[in-house]
Specification:
Strand content: 5-15%
Structural class: alpha+beta
Largest sheet: 3 strands, antiparallel
Number of domains: 1
Shape: globular
Helix content: 40-55%
CATH architecture: Orthogonal Bundle
Oligomer: single chain
Distance between the termini: 10 Å
CATH superfamily: Winged helix-like DNA-binding domain superfamily/Winged helix DNA-binding domain
Length: 84
Amino acid sequence: MAEERLHPSDQLLLRMHNLGVVSEKASRTAQELSRLAQIPSDQISDLLRRHEDSGYLGSLPDPEGRPRYFLTGKGIIRVCSVFT
């Protein structure tokens, strides 16, 4: 399945995986993820919230208090399951 055929929410998880955003140390802000994943900023917050609620993403605050997101083990499994 081509990445373009994936739902935007799955595209976000796949791109995070491909970029190595799989740990707290590699976490990124919503603005960074919007730019890197090429998902409009008005959509990214909702996608991140839903994925965090589902356990696919974890977050921690940066020094300014903004959340930084990363794929959890469950999120990595979700990415892998898209292609099986």
